[in-house]
Structures are given as C-alpha cells and as structure tokens.
Amino acid sequence: MSWRKITKPSSQYSVLLLLVVGIIVGVVGYFTVQQTLHITSSDAFCMTCHSNHSLKEEVLASSHGGSKSGVVVECQQCHLPQEPLNYLIKKIIVSKDVIGFLTIENFNTQAWLEENRKAQADIARDYLRSIDSSTCQNCHKRIYEDQPEAMNNMAVRMHHKNSKKVPPERQTCIDCHKGIVHPYPET
Ligand code: HEC
Ligand code: HEC
Ligand code: HEC
Ligand code: HEC
After folding, report:
1. Nearest C-alpha to atom 6 of ligand 1 is from which residue?
2. What element of type H or E holds 135?
3. Spatial distance between the Cα atoms of 78 and 133, rounded to a whole number of angstroms
4. Would the CB of 101 count as within 6 Å of ligand 1?
5. Nearest ligand to the C-alpha of residue 138?
6. Residue 56, ligand 1, Cβ within 6 A
7. 46-101, pLDDT tens digit by residue?
8. For the segment 94-103, what is each residue's pLDDT rounded down to a tens digit?
9. I need a labelling partner for 1 at 20 to 30 A (CA). Which of 17, 29, 93, 117 fits?
10. Neighbouring residues of 24: CB distance < 8 A, sequence distance ≥ 6
11. 3-state class of 54 per DSSP?
C-alpha cells in the first residue's frame, strides 16, 4: 500500500485516522485487561465468592498472617503463579469457577468447605506441585542454597538433602509443608 493510499481518505475516513483510533483502542484495551487481571487477584475479589469460608481468618491466624513479620500474605501470592504467561493461563482456567459458584449447591457456606476441604485441598496441591511450588519460592528464595542462621538444624538438613535430589525424587515445598495455612484434613 502506498503512502498516498494510507493518507488518502477511504470512503469516509483516512486509513491513517483509522489506524490512530485502532492504536488508541488497543492501548486502552490493554490497560483495561491489565487492570481487570489486577483487581480480580485481590483478596477482596477472592472473598466475594468465598465470603462465608474461613479462609481469610485461617491466613491471619497462621505464620503467614503477619503476627511475626508484619507481612500478611495475599491469597494470590500463594495460589497464582507470578510469571506473566502462567499467570494468564491460570486466570483463564479459574474463570470457570464462576460456573461452579453459580451451580454448586451451598458452595459459599462453611459446611460446604468442611465437607469438601480435602478434595479442594488436593486440587490446590496438585496445581502447586505442577509448578514446583514456585509461588512459595518467590518469597522463600534460595531456601536450598543459603539457609538463614536462625533456621533450625533439622530444617537445614532436610532442605539440603532434598536439594541434592533430582526430580522425581526431589520433593516440592508443599510435599513436606502440608496445611501451611489452612487446616489439612488427613482423612
Ligand atoms: C467467581 C467465584 C470465585 C472467585 C472470585 C474465586 N473463587 Fe476460588 N473457588 C470457587 C469455586 C466455585 C471453587 C470450587 C471449584 C470446583 O471444585 O469446581 C473454588 C475453589 C478454589 C480453590 C480450590 C480448588 C483449586 O482450584 O485449587 C482454591 C485454592 C481457590 N478457589 C482459591 C481462590 C483464590 C486465591 C481466589 C482469588 C484470586 C478465588 N479462589 C476466587 C469460586 C471462586
Ligand atoms: C508473600 C511471601 C510469602 C509466600 C508467597 C509464602 N511465604 Fe512462607 N513465609 C513468609 C513469611 C513472611 C513468613 C514468616 C517468617 C517468620 O516466621 O518470621 C513465612 C513463614 C513460613 C514458614 C515457617 C513457619 C511455619 O509455618 O512453619 C514455612 C514453613 C513457610 N513459610 C512455607 C511456605 C510455603 C510452603 C509456601 C507456599 C505454599 C509459602 N511459605 C509462601 C512469606 C511467604
Ligand atoms: C524434604 C522435606 C522438605 C522440603 C521438600 C521442604 N522443606 Fe521446609 N522444612 C522441612 C522441615 C522438616 C522443617 C523444620 C520443621 C518445620 O519448621 O516445619 C522445615 C522448615 C522450613 C521453614 C522454617 C525454617 C525456620 O526454622 O526458620 C521454611 C521457611 C521452609 N521450611 C520453607 C520451605 C520451602 C520454601 C520449601 C520449598 C523450596 C521447602 N521448605 C521444602 C522440610 C522440608
Ligand atoms: C502461604 C500460602 C497460602 C496463602 C496465603 C493462602 N493459601 Fe490457600 N492454600 C495454600 C495451600 C498450600 C493449599 C493446599 C492445601 C494445604 O496444603 O493445606 C491451599 C488450599 C486452599 C483451598 C482449598 C481448601 C483448603 O482449605 O485446603 C482454598 C479454597 C484456598 N486455599 C483459598 C485461599 C484463599 C481464599 C486465600 C486468601 C484469603 C488463601 N487460600 C491464602 C496456600 C495458601
């Protein structure tokens, strides 16, 4: 296409104008999507569907609830991968939960959570295992390379030994750290 053709009015608008408008729409759209992804990752958003579940209280009562370090870990920091592509894929997969929310009887009740906790926990655990607990490792960096002085000997030994193994023998964080936040039902 020649430059003349680009700047020349088409039937009504010049192709250049259409291009400019297209770019503006694209940029606004991009930021809208980013903003939407961001909002739909907040604790408040998670709790819109899980509002009658004790999940947030469990976080607050746990070692990840800020009592020691002052840091309250967000739901998404453990549950959603932080790498952009995996993040997007996980967001698309969990968007199906809208249907579950609308169709699972009594979903948003504590009774439902207690009854289904083990099954739900295992789905969450399978997912975390599939990403090698990368969300845990985002905060607990280099747990295998240089353990803090204060870490107890048993932890140092277990981590060290595990770090020497190769998959599939190598365990992932949640294999050993079960029920780190929410009570994990053994039966
Ligand atoms: C649209 C409603 C809705 C929202 C918003 C929502 N959830 Fe859920 N969530 C559900 C439903 C429904 C299930 C049960 C899914 C099933 O078994 O089909 C579920 C299950 C889960 C599970 C266990 C099963 C799994 O897929 O791992 C986790 C973990 C979870 N949600 C975390 C979150 C987090 C974190 C957020 C916020 C980023 C969130 N949820 C936001 C409806 C929602
Ligand atoms: C947003 C950062 C963050 C994420 C994500 C995170 N943690 Fe932590 N974790 C912390 C902080 C902060 C503490 C408290 C440190 C302290 O005790 O001073 C902690 C404490 C711990 C402890 C020691 C206390 C205890 O309960 O035994 C373990 C074990 C642990 N985390 C494992 C995990 C695992 C497993 C995951 C992934 C499921 C994870 N963490 C995800 C920040 C994080
Ligand atoms: C082979 C089992 C095993 C694996 C895998 C494992 N841990 Fe541990 N971890 C332990 C044991 C045992 C302790 C000591 C008891 C405790 O605090 O729960 C410990 C303690 C910890 C602590 C508390 C240390 C302290 O005393 O300050 C943190 C934080 C932690 N682990 C994080 C992680 C993270 C993150 C991963 C994944 C990269 C991981 N662990 C993988 C067994 C394991
Ligand atoms: C420190 C990491 C961490 C944080 C913070 C966290 N979770 Fe979880 N969550 C897990 C892990 C790990 C599991 C898998 C079960 C287990 O090992 O206990 C899980 C399991 C679940 C399940 C399945 C049912 C159950 O009780 O096991 C739901 C639903 C869930 N989380 C929702 C949430 C919501 C909502 C928030 C925020 C209010 C949140 N989680 C915060 C780590 C976390």
Report:
1. 46
2. helix 134-139
3. 9
4. yes
5. 2
6. no
7. 999 999 999 999 999 999 999 888 889 999 999 999 999 999 999 999 999 999 99
8. 999 999 999 9
9. 29
10. none
11. coil
- Token digits of residue 46: 């998670």
What is the DSSP secondary-structure string of 93-125?
HHTTHHHHHHHSTTTTSHHHHHHHHHHHHHHHH
Indicate if ligand 1 lies below 6 Å from the C-beta of 114. Answer: no
Using the 8-state DSSP alphabet, how is residue 52 labeled?
Answer: T
Q: Which atom of ligand 1 is nearest to the CA of 78?
A: 35
Q: Where does the pLDDT of residue 6 fall: very low under 50, low under 70, confident under 90, or very high at 90 and above?
A: low
Q: Distance (Å, rounded) from C-alpha 42 to C-alpha 48?
A: 10
In this prediction, residues 148-164 reach a mean pLDDT of 84
